[in-house]
Structure formats: structure tokens, C-alpha cells
Amino acid sequence: MDNTKDRVIQIAGSCHKDDKSEDVKFSHVFVAHLTNQLLKRGAIITTAIGKEENKDLSNIYYWDVLEAAYEYSCSLSFSKDTKNRVKVVSSEKAESQIPESRKQLWKNLISKGVITIHRINPGWNSGAYRRQKQEALSDGLITLGGGEGIEHLTFLYVSNGKPVLPLDMPLNASCKDGLGGSRLMFRRIVHKPEKYLHNVKPDTSTKLISLKYENWNKSPKRYAQSIITFLNDIICPQVFYIRLLDKKEKAYLEVETFFRKVVDNVVISKRYCIKEMERSETKKAFINSEMFEEIAKSTIVIADLSKLRNNCFMEMGYAFGENKKVLVTAKKGTNLPFDSKAIPCYFWDLNKPIKDSRKEFQDFWGKNINREPLVPEVDII
Q1: Which H or E run includes 144?
Q2: Which domain holds residue 29?
Q3: CATH number for position 320
Q4: Is the dihedral of CA 65, 194, 276, 245 positive or negative?
Q5: CA-based nearest residue to 299, from 369, 352, 362, 356
Q6: How would you write the pLDDT of the chain (381 residues) with one tens digit per residue?
Q7: Which domain-ending residue is among 219, 234, 249?
Q8: 229 shares its domain with 242
Q9: pTM across the whole model
């Protein structure tokens, strides 16, 4: 199973403009290969746009990503499989800084439908705000070089439970800021991979060490391939289940059957990891605190309100407050409270054939997964 297919991966980093080393040359070729291989596997790329001080050996990588995406799309004659394959977080100022040597590429990417542009508010160009937008659009992050911007971007992804893979290429930050950028993050991830990744196994640190730049600095293509192989194991966004767990309740067996035979099937088919308290491994002494931490780390929350348990409403409210994507379910005949009735709910019925229930829940997922948050971002402009 290819976990990178349809996942949105951001490639981010920088190097110093005065650095003309072989490592910098390698990094640009590597980013082009990485972009190409991700696109071939069906991934979507998030990147930025803006100025470029030296096209021959730039201190940024977004033009490498865009150029590789265009070449990939051209190789497929701009077929339907090349549409909307790159998300570009932009601003008015950033677009005004596009160099002459890149303007035709930019126009071609737009006219051929390869990219989708996500602009921040008119007149704004804050790097922090653009990074927030990039993280919100993406499922995972790969970093190289950089300084405080990469450190902030890593913080955003980790805070929202999204995997980050920092690389240890010896590249200096473009502004010579931060504590060490991607190289520092690589040292930290080897020490505590569970902070940065899903699906951590006993050999994860060993695999990370095998990705050290010194092992691959002769072949950017093979290095990119090794990153993709590792990425396929860790890009598995988490779905958290909120549901009745008290086995003494009469409704427990019905809820359990619905989740095991219907929900699990749909979630796994969409290549998500499942987190369910009492079934998944518990690492904290106090299960309540871990539960809220896991909700915060999850991409999607499925909240079943059968039996109208107070704790389920509390957990669902927390998920909504964190602006998570929440899918609400309940047994047919459940009389939801007034406020909850306004939220779309899939009412399941175990008297139906399981195959039909899976199809119905799959359709419900598709129709409701991308709804706006209950409390959308305040727009003052």
C-alpha cells in the first residue's frame, strides 16, 4: 500500500546565498528528484513562491519544486493526472518578486492547471502567517537546511500531530538565524522519533540514522528514493475514535460491531491510522490527559454519540474547539440534543447489510469531511 498517494507533502528549506559548496549543488538536484518521485507516486506538493537571487545556485528550493513539477506534467502531456498537483502558498508581494527568468514558468504552471494558488490576506507577507497556511494545507513535512523558519514550521506540524522528516544536509540558514534548522531537528528526531512521527517502531531510529546525508551524498536520486521509502511508513494521518467504551452498557456490543465492521473498514481503506483508547497502546499514567493529547494530534475525529454519554460530548467539543475535522455518528433512533442536531450525523443501522453501511458511511465521509470549522478564522480585512 502506498501511503504517499493523495497525501499533501510540503518540501521546505533554504541555504545561505554565499554558500557554493558541492552540498548545496547536491541539494538542488535532490529536491528536483524528490519532487518528481513524490508526484509519480500520486502525492501532492505544498510549496511557496517569491524571489530568487541566483538561478544557477539559489538559496531557496521552491523554484526547484515548481520546475520539477512542470517537467513531470509535461512528460505526461499535461493529462488530467497533472492537474492541481502543487499547492502554492502565495502573497501579492511574493508574486511581485518573481524574477523575469521564472515568469514564463509561473504562467505555464497556471495555464496548464498544474498548481493551485492559496493567497494570504491582501497586503500581508508575514513568513509566520504563510507557514501557518502551508501547514494547514498539508499532511506532512520534509525539511532541509534553514533556520528559525524551518524550526517554526516544524513546531506547527508537530503541534498538530503531523509527521515531520528533517534531513541533516550541511546547509546554513539563508538568514543565518535559528538554532540549527533541519540539522538540529534531525538530531532530535533520532533521539525521540515519537515526537515527530506516527507508526514509530523499535527500529525507527536505526532507519533514521541510515538516512544520514553522509550515506547518500554521491547519488541525489537514490537519496530521494530512500526518503520516499521511509516516508511511506510514516505518512499515516491519525483518526481518533470517540465512542462508548463501557462494556457494561447494553449498547456496547452494537457500537463495537459498528466500529469494527464499518468504521475500521472505511478508515483503513483511506490509509489512516486508528487511535482508540483502551485498544491502542497507552503511554501516559493518566489516560484522560493522553486522550486529549491524541485528539489534538489527530487529523480526523469520529465521534459516535450513541447513548448520549457526557464524556463523548466533552471530547467532541474539544475536537471542534481544536478545529479538527469531525464526523458525527450515532445509532439510528438516537435523539440528539438541540445543538448537536445542527451537525450532520450518520445514523447507522446494523439491520442493514454491512456492505451497504460501509458504502453509506463512505459517502457520508466524502460529503462532510471538508466542511468549514464551526468557528472559522476571523477575517478582519
Answers
A1: strand 140-145
A2: 8-234
A3: 3.40.50.450
A4: negative
A5: 369
A6: 677 888 999 999 998 877 778 999 999 999 999 999 999 999 999 999 998 877 777 889 999 999 999 999 999 999 999 999 999 999 999 999 999 999 999 999 999 999 999 999 888 888 899 999 999 999 899 999 998 999 999 999 998 888 999 999 999 887 787 788 999 999 999 999 988 887 788 899 999 999 999 999 899 999 999 999 998 877 788 899 999 999 999 999 999 999 999 999 999 999 888 999 876 555 554 557 788 989 988 889 999 999 999 999 999 999 999 889 999 999 999 999 877 788 999 999 999 999 999 999 999 999 998 887 777 666 655
A7: 234
A8: no
A9: 0.86
The total of structural domains in the chain comes to: 2
Distances (CA, A) of 98 to 101, 119, 237, 238, 320: 8, 15, 34, 37, 39
Indicate the pairing of strand 44-47 with strand 140-145: unpaired
Query: What contacts 338, CB < 8 A, 6 or more positions away?
Result: none
Length of the chain: 381
Per-residue b or e along 101-134, where b marks 16 or more CB atoms closer than 10 Å to that residue's CB? ebeeebebbeeeebbeeeebeeeebeeeebbbbb
In a shared domain, residues 260 and 119: no
The answer to whether 277 and 209 are in contact (CB under 8 A) is no
Is there a single domain that holds both residue 201 and residue 329?
Answer: no
Q: Which of 63, 62, 53 is nearest to 18 (CA)?
A: 53
Residue 156 sits in a domain whose CATH number is 3.40.50
C-alpha cell at 67: 520546475
Phi, psi of 218 (to 5 degrees): -105, -10
Identify the helix (H) or strand (E) that includes residue 301.
strand 300-304
Q: Which residues lie across from 314 on neighbouring strands?
A: none
Q: Domain check: are 74 and 218 in the same one?
A: yes
Whether residues 44 and 173 fall in one domain = yes
Nine-digit cell string for 297: 494530534
